[in-house]
């Protein structure tokens, strides 16, 4: 069996106007990987491909040595949870929404959730800080609260691979760190493999062991944060000059943005 837990091999997918081209990377079990890159570089398109929303145009997605397309849908849903950028919830309570994470485990004629389903949903609503909203409708939550409920639902699914598309985009700094710490804990303690699209380069640096940098539908560079987050690569890919330093506590790179006025001064 392959030592890689999840592999993307020479993979292409996309739309008439945009194509992801020849994407190859792999994750070991228990990896915490981040996908970074400018707007429109294809990060969400890749997630649509992995979730099966977009058909492949070439290449393969391989989970534990097996092509993903050969896995039965239920097994696929037990193994992989995806938190997308937009929460499409409608008029259901937060608790019912989170409980939907258990559907892949229900047998064909099971119409009611089990005690364990409720225990898991309650646990993850508590850990993501939405338990006190459990009887509210999803539509009554703020964007950040909906995002946390979506993460609670994905964790309730007890996946082995967790895909997160911008999980912190609507969160204040308290909840950004709280959610990423929670995912980091599950990654370390339970071997949850994590692949997340993240815009904030400093959070990407601090939490991820492996970064994959996209540019115009291709991988520009991949490696450890200190290999990827350098002045040169950031300037080349984002066309933005930055200052890079090392965080004295974590020894990971930190990126500072500088205004045009200050740049001109120096
Ligand atoms: P990122 O997540 O890196 O910001 P996306 O993967 O969302 O980028 O988008 C990559 C490109 O694909 C963009 O140029 C975007 O306009 C295009 N695109 C995204 N969604 C669609 C769609 N549904 N139909 C056609 N083109 C799309």
TrEMBL record:
Keyword Nucleotide-binding included in the entry's annotation: yes
Keywords of the record: ATP-binding, Nucleotide-binding, Translocase, Transport
Source organism (scientific name): Mangrovibacterium marinum
Domain ABC transporter: residue ranges: 3-241
Superkingdom per UniProt: Bacteria
A molecular function (GO) term: ATP binding
Biological role stated in the UniProt entry: Part of the ABC transporter complex HmuTUV involved in hemin import. Responsible for energy coupling to the transport system.
The name this protein goes by in its record: Iron complex transport system ATP-binding protein
PANTHER family recorded: HEMIN IMPORT ATP-BINDING PROTEIN HMUV
Record-linked InterPro entries: AAA+_ATPase, ABC_transporter-like_ATP-bd, ABC_transporter-like_CS, P-loop_NTPase
């Amino acid at each position: 069996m392959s030592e890689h837990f999840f592999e993307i091999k020479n993979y292409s997918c996309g739309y008439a106007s945009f194509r992801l081209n020849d994407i190859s990377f792999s994750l070991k079990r228990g990896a915490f990987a981040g996908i970074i890159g400018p707007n429109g570089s294809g990060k969400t398109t890749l997630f649509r491909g992995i979730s099966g929303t977009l058909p492949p145009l070439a290449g393969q997605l391989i989970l534990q040595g097996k092509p993903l397309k050969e896995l039965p849908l239920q097994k696929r849903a037990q193994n992989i949870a995806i938190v997308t950028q937009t929460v499409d919830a409608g008029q259901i309570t937060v608790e019912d929404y989170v409980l939907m994470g258990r559907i892949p485990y229900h047998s064909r004629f099971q119409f009611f959730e089990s005690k364990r389903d409720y225990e898991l949903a309650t646990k993850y609503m508590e850990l993501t800080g939405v338990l006190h909203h459990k009887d509210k409708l999803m539509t009554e939550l703020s964007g950040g609260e909906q995002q946390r409920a979506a993460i609670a639902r994905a964790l309730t699914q007890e996946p082995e691979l967790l895909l997160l598309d911008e999980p912190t985009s609507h969160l204040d700094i308290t909840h950004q760190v709280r959610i990423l710490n929670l995912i980091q804990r599950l990654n370390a303690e339970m071997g949850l493999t994590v692949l997340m699209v993240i815009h904030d380069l400093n959070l990407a640096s601090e939490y991820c062991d492996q970064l994959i940098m996209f540019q115009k539908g291709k991988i520009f560079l991949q490696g450890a944060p200190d290999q990827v987050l350098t002045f040169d690569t950031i300037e080349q890919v984002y066309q933005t000059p930055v200052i890079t330093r090392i965080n004295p506590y974590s020894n990971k790179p930190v990126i500072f943005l500088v205004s045009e006025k200050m740049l001109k001064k120096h």
